[in-house]
Amino acid sequence: MSEQLTMPLNSQILSFFKEAIVFVSKDGMIIEGNLKAYTLLNAEQIISNSIEDYIDFRLLLDASQSHLLMEMKTEKGKLLEVKSLQVNENLYCLILDELSIRNRADEIKRYINQISNNSVEGIVLYGKRAIIDCDDTFATMFGYQIEELKRKTMDQLIDAKSYRKLIETDLVTINGVLELKGVRKDGTLFYIEMVEYPYYKNGKIIRAASVKDITERIEAENKIEYMAYYDELTDLPNRNFFNKVLKDAIIQAEQQEEKVAVFFLDLDYFKEINDTLGYSFGDKLLQACANRLKLFQQLDTFLARMGGDEFLLLQRHTEKEDAIDFAEKLIAEFEKPITIDDYEIYTTVSIGISIFPDNGLTASDLIKHADSAMYVIKERHRNYYNIFDSTISENFKLMLTMEAELRRALKEGQFELHYQPQINLLTNEVVGLEALIRWNHPEKGFISPSEFIPLAEKTGLIIDIGDWVLSEACRQNKEWQDKGYKPITVSVNLSAKQFYQRNLVEKINDILDETGLEPSYLELEITERMAMSNEEEILETLHALRKLGVLVSIDDFGTGYSSFKYLSVFPITKLKIDKMFLDEQKKENQAIVKSIIHMSHSLNMKVIAEGVETREQLDFLTSERCDEMQGYLFSRPLPPKKLTPFLG
Q1: Distance (Å, rounded) from C-alpha 98 to C-alpha 72?
Q2: DSSP symbols for 132-160
Q3: Which residues in 73-98 are b (16+ Cβ under 10 Å) and which e?
Q4: Mean pLDDT (whole number) for 242-269
Q5: Residue 235: CB atoms within 10 Å
Q6: Domain GGDEF: where (predicted)?
């Protein structure tokens, strides 16, 4: 058949080409070629020989044009780049070129880049397993010399799990990008990205692959993933991870008709410990508590940190009784002391529990309901657990509604200040006013502070509300003075969140400047517990306020854990005796009141008694030389318009 073929080029013209060229019939017989081709194929006379003796020609028959990389059959390790062009139905033109990874790495890379459109770091050629050749970059990447690698197999350079992935993917993927773990000569693992390039459709004689070291990128991605799903302080999964696991647990429980319990844990008294011993100590406490909770991790549980001092715990394959038993074990574990920096800390936990499907069908509902149940038990009885019920949900809906209305009240000016006169017991004159907030709801009328102040504290709205109270009390007092009334002091209660603001002194100074009120006519009331929470910081704030000229008093004195130390160190101007000590039915109360009055006077502080309602109480206070009083016996809190008769 070859004699009947018409050659497009005669042998003389062929000799002028630098490339090795042969013409081959469809059945593989060599029709014509140039000297370069004879030399390359290491044959003195190749005409009438079959090209199949040298390369796998059958792989070139499927396309009119092909560009393949092949190993010569007659010389192991000799690689040929073969470009094939079908001249006509029965004739093929083959352009041959030898490729050596070491001597012609750039050509190999260009060849791979033509296919992949990607830059490569290292390249390797290998057979089924054995490495045929590689470039310097690939060898350096794995810590070998090139000659060393040529005695290795691919499964020695890739860890077992990754190698299985390579083999399995190779069967189904063409030009696939694989992320694998490489094994260096010293045994250390690193991440590589490997891309194989098949050069024919029906099988592979030689495999070429580009390899990149992507360790830095993978580690960065792992860090990002860790940040997305883990809490850095406690090394526990975070809420995002918990939410994902809970969703999967719900699906499984639904299929198997089982129950899942969600536990919402809150550390009791963490804020007080944090404020007293500092944030660094608080972080150590959170880590210690997290380690204690890790003791409860089992195959059917999953633990996460919600945020702050709150944790989440999931229990699979459970019932209500199992959940209760688990909660009791958690509580018992946290009743044991925790030792940190030579301090023996006793902190307990309040736990809210919700159960799928009884208390919710979605992850978000279960977490929300467990949180609600925890909130209720923490308000009533710490160091205990509470299982969610529907009434809790209704109460929370009311709370959310009130929160929205609180925000609207602040925006629309629904708050008012009423003032209760404070009387000098020696002169019987009004010497001060306590500002007390009232919420005049447009539909519900006046709402008691006991209903909305706790909510304002929880939501943080107390800061904005407290700022308004301060500003309005100073403005009103200055207005009375400008109208010619006798200057008196207005006292304002500060919440804990207000008092712990870093910019509190600056904020009060700005309010005084804006309203024009002299600092000596403003008195700030803080509670005894607030004064004791973090001595060093509190002392700094109190001295700054006194330097500003503002008066500071301690409210509800005697209800906390007072000591002479605090009273002698803190720059306090007045103590307010809580009304609970004015109960005449208990004689020990009178003894307490006497002690407070005498102690205060010895420290050059004034004393005011609140909640005075009977003449007997007044007579007792007068006889004990109490300085001031306020209470219903003299006047209830009044709006500004009704106060003018008392102002003189």
Answers
A1: 10
A2: EEE-HHHHHHHT--HHHHTT-BHHHHB-H
A3: eeeeebbbbbbbebbeebbbbbbbee
A4: 92
A5: 13
A6: 258-390
Q: Looking at the predicted structure, is the pLDDT value of residue 390 above 60?
A: yes
Tokens of 353: 């529990």
Amino acid symbol at 270: F
Burial string for 566-599 (b: 16+ CB within 10 Å, else e) reads bbeebebbbbbbbbebbeeeeeebeeebeebbeb
Positive or negative torsion for Cα 266, 271, 274, 277: negative
Q: What is the percentage of the chain residues whose pLDDT exceeds 70?
A: 86
Q: How far is CA 102 from CA 56, 106, 122, 205, in A?
A: 24, 9, 12, 20
Q: Is 564 exposed, middle or buried (0-12, 13-18, 19+ CB in 10 A)?
A: exposed
Instruction: Indicate the SS3 state at residue 430.
Output: strand
| pTM for the predicted model, two decimal places | 0.48
pLDDT at 199: 44
Please state, in angstroms and as integers, the Cα–Cα distance from residue 377 to each residue in 322, 381, 383, 395, 585, following that order.
19, 5, 9, 13, 33
Position of tokens 């094939």?
A: 84
Q: Are strands 522-527 and 551-557 parallel, antiparallel or unpaired?
A: parallel
Tell me, what's the pLDDT at 68?
A: 78
* d(C-alpha 81, C-alpha 115), whole Å: 14
Q: Which residues, other chains included, contact 483 with Cβ-Cβ below 8 Å and sequence gap of 6+?
A: none
CA count, 13 A, side-chain hemisphere, 306: 18
Spatial separation of the C-alpha atoms in residues 608 and 325, rounded to whole Å: 51
Determine contact, residues 192/181, Cβ cutoff 8 Å. Answer: yes
Taking the C-alpha atoms of residue 118 and residue 47, their distance in angstroms, rounded to an integer, is 41
Pairing state between β 310-318 and 338-340: unpaired
E runs forming strands in 167-258: 177-183, 189-197, 207-213, 230-231, 236-237
Q: Report the DSSP pairing between strands 259-267 and 551-557.
A: unpaired
Query: What is the maximum span of the chain, computed from C-alpha positions, in angstroms?
Result: 140
3-state secondary structure of 438: strand
Under 8 Å between Cβ of 201 and 59:
yes
Q: State the Cα–Cα distance between residues 465 and 469, nearest whole angstrom.
A: 6
Per residue in 70-99, pLDDT (tens digit) is 878 887 767 788 889 998 888 999 999 887
Q: What is the C-alpha separation between 293 and 260, in angstroms, rounded? A: 19
The sign of the torsion formed by the CA atoms of 10, 14, 15, 21 equals negative
Phi-psi region of 425 (alpha: psi -120 to 50; beta: other; left: phi over 0): alpha
Residue 416 near residue 441 (C-beta atoms within 8 A): no
- CA dist 571 and 59 (Å) reads 96
Name the burial class of residue 26, with classes exposed (0-12), middle (13-18) and buried (19+) by CB atoms within 10 angstroms of its CB.
middle
The β-bridge partners of 260 are 356
3-state secondary structure 533-602: HCHHHHHHHHHHHHHHCCEEEEEEECCCCCCHHHHHHCCCCEEEECHHHHCCCCHHHHHHHHHHHHHHHH
Q: Over 50: is that where the pLDDT of 202 sits?
A: no
